[in-house]
Structures
1.
Amino acid sequence: MKDEKFQIKLNVQIGESLDNLKTETYSVDVDKKMVVLDAVHELQATQLPELAVRWNCKAGKCGSCSAEVNGKPKLMCMSKLSDYNLKEPISIRPMKTFPLIKDLVTDVSWNYEVNKRIKPYNHPNSSEYITMQQIDVDRVQEFRKCIECFLCQNVCHILRDHDLKDKFVGPRFLLRLASLNMHPLDTENRLGDIKDEFGLGYCNITKCCTEVCPEIIPITDEAIIPLKERVVDEFYDPIKWFLRKLFPKK
Amino acid sequence: MINLELVEHKRFENSRNDNWWLRPFIQALTLTFFALYAMWAVVFDVEHHKSEINDVSFVSPFYSPEIKLDWWPENLSPGLILIWAPLGFRLTCYYARRVYYRAFFADPPSCAVGELRAVANKYKGETKLPWILNNLHRYFFYIAFILASIHVFSFVKLIVVGSLATMEGQIATLLLGLDGIFLALYVLSCHSCKHLVGGGLNCNSCSSMTIKRYQTWKFIKKLNTKHHWYFWLSLITILMADMYIRFILAAN
Ligand code: SF4
Ligand code: SF4
Ligand code: FES
Ligand code: FES
């Protein structure tokens, strides 16, 4: 049985540079099983063939279709129309934090540059065959669910509003740093860089990254706060500092 | 490296169509009310913090445990001897930080909502004074752990000495019990506690000790997911217990 079609309104921000942006309202035919990305595709197919929109999997797994739907950072392919009040127009904008390329597409390459600054996993220098147990990797395994949609980077006020991209790497990369720092075998000492170069102290744990993560990774509770505690161990805790002086590691 | 354009921000700029301001607004009101009430109870209305029913004395949780210092000036409330500890614990709590940075400093007021001053503001986060001091949260945790244990212990002691003999005593005991329980849950679910018991370990399977620590960590992690609830519930129950003890005094 075919679903009945009906019309909704979309407010879409179009334009290529900040001074020629406009938000236009379009009516598109949809049915109730569609997601926001379907509605955008319908618009592109029937009225606006030049509309730029990035997508790939339509299954919430490639992280390409990030945008701001009714002002909230979302994967368009995972945002069901039935979750919205369809009597009102739905507003669709590109991610605000990254430079605009065209319409709904932004240039997220800054993130890849940041990623290159992180030292890769460093395996122990030993010929011994090492086995790891599940309880050793439980924690870091959860972090690997990240699909690099960069919605958390987009919503983080340090990048979005304060524009401190030179000082702070953003939640996605704190997550990656946590997964390396908590790895049972990695031999790299990362805490100094995490504190200084990657700017952990800028995060004020206001948790918007966790709120928007489509993979529901508890970024703040399981990665950022534990990293903050580890940095305290190393740099801010006077008793630990004293004990280290008293019993230096050989 | 690519060039990033600076976007001009308008105050509270956003395209959300829900009431994004409601939650921070309610939280700011609630915390302000609580702070004013606590100040009144601890600094100004000192005489009414303890009531006696049938020789059992009920002490307001703001003043518990009671400490007597000979050199403490008479015109200063004895509640001030200890109040810095729970105050510091709450002010440096990771959850409370989230609440006050959002509700009082609008930094950010809500997710994907612009700030008051944004780009022009020289944001330093927790890298500089005063907020860098939040890194000392664990020390307040150590003290809070002892205080919470005393609250639970004095609740048990109340029952032993016969606090349940009267209706008023039963209600006061119940409220002080709830205060003890939620305070204990709030303290146990703390992020610093989670880190202390096993959060700093990388190899959980290395020894029987680390396995035990991992299991405790898992338990605390479960509590930790409800930390925000315990924060509010422990605030509310302290307030109710204090109010009820003052109410008994006023009624008799
Ligand atoms: S919790 Fe920290 S990293 Fe996450 S959005 Fe907030 S400030 Fe950014
Ligand atoms: S952590 Fe979540 S929100 Fe951030 S990039 Fe990964 S999947 Fe996206
Ligand atoms: S299209 Fe792949 S995540 Fe939406
Ligand atoms: S009390 Fe909230 S995190 Fe420690």
Note: Residues 227-251 of chain B form the longest helix (25 residues).
2.
Amino acid sequence: MITIEALSKAYGGNTVVQDISFTARSGRVTGFLGPNGAGKSTSMRMMVGLTAPTRGTATINGRRFADLPNPGREVGVMLDASAQHAGRTGGEILTIAQRVMGVPSSRVAELLDLVSLTGDEADRRVGNYSLGMRQRLGIAAALVGDPGVLILDEPANGLDPAGIRWMRDLLRDYADHGGTVLLSSHLLGEIEIIADDIVMIGQGRIVCQGSKAELLQAAGTVVRSPDVAALREAMGTAGIQVTVLPDGSLRTDTDIADVGRAAYDGGVLLTELRTADSGGLEDMFLELTADTQRDTHTERSVA
Amino acid sequence: MSAMTTTTAGPTRARLGEIAPIPLSRVVRVELRKMFDTRAGFWLIASIAITGLTATIATIAFAPDQDLTYYNFAKAVGYPVTVILPMVALLAITSEWSQRSGLTTFTYVPDRRRVILAKTWSSVIVAIASMLFAFAAGAVGNVAGSTIAGTSTVWDLSAGHATTIVLGNLVSLSIGTMLGMVLRSSAGGLVMYFVLVLLVPNLTSLLATSQDWFAHAQPWVDLPFAQTSLFEGMHTGAQWAHVATTVGLWIVLPGIYGLRRVIRSEVK
Ligand SMILES: Nc1ncnc2c1ncn2[C@@H]1O[C@H](COP(=O)(O)OP(=O)(O)O)[C@@H](O)[C@H]1O
Ligand SMILES: [Mg+2]
């Protein structure tokens, strides 16, 4: 289990991770979703002690990462599959992991087999690996110590659709055996395929979190008017929090009838008023991505 | 467990045994391995032996007969050791940043001081092995050289002097360790190293000949100057004091600063 409590990171005066809290549970694949620059990598580096947090804590099975006696046996980490000495062979990189962690040398062949790297490929230097091969090697290295927790930053990056399915099956199997997986992605599609739980982050804050099933069916209302300013004012008057979507429509968690009444009371002409479908998550994600038209952050928790 | 066990990704925990703290000796062995497992690293260390052997042959071929003594052979073979070892020590540290492998190294062993300590130990092990090689190659060269020249074989290196030569090399090595920690960049570290060993000694000797006050202060502030006595033989207590102060000034102090940077800097 990974427990993040009020974790924050500021560089100078610039806060890039702000007060995030969530739990990645065992038996579940937790997707850490957010556009580029949202603060996913920074958060993950703080979890494994590579970056010092400004505030807050991250614990793994109740202990700080730095306090684990042999971290590789408890947490498999892959933060950047390309961050390896280009002159080492793939097999050598696994051997180093195996030696440091003090596990049997048979693990190297087992894991090469698990991630479908041939002996020939294992003898090649990683400088010559494709991104997909590096990701597989990185997953293998993370699994060498047979850890109960995995922390993977953008592991599906560089994989083709078949590779993504392979990764999903592997992580599914791992979680079904009781493992905890936290993986990040900047692509909603990847997270939808792989994750059970979703934590969505934008500009360093958690925007929403919950199980994928709940988040995808979580309803809301989408409303549109040619006069966006008047519509926002009418919603504000009624105390309804809205977010502006990239196409100019507004989205809110409030019930459709209340939104209609607020528009009526404000005398605003509507061209669209509907229940947000499963696109709610997607709408929110798009809204994060198009950070120019931001209105308010909607903090929502479906726990 | 059946013979048909297939590996799953799922954590099985118990199968690999108890989780125990990682002993330092294991980190040292792994760091030693990492010095040899890349082509660049392997050839860098191999070049110590290659240039050492070349130096022995060159001494036999070109040195005047009266110079065919053990000290001269050991010095010729030892010179490449002195120049190359600091690079080995430096690159062992900087590559974690320049090649970004620190992202994994420091998650296997989160206490970065232990990683640096293990790297320093493995550099020292390579250094001792290289110097044993140099002393042995020098002995072979000395016997071969004097036989070829028809002169008597001269063994003119005392155990005490050999020890200070080893110390001198360890001081050189720690320059690499210190620079590695302070700069954490392979390119920057190598440039700085060559500036320090090639440029600075010339500048200081120039300064010493032109400025009287510096000529007096030099033994206390000039590290390569103090090292020279280690290599050529220590005769006075003052020489030891010079070594101690210059090492404190140029290696220990910046080393402490560098270690703090290593511990605090972000690895990404
Ligand atoms: N060392 C740093 N100094 C200043 N800003 C940084 C530093 N590292 C990361 N950032 C900023 O923090 C934000 C989050 O980055 P990151 O965690 O890499 O996001 P993600 O992984 O979600 O794409 C970015 O805006 C990035 O520019
Ligand atoms: Mg990132």
Note: Chain A touches chain B through 57 residues (CB under 8 Å).
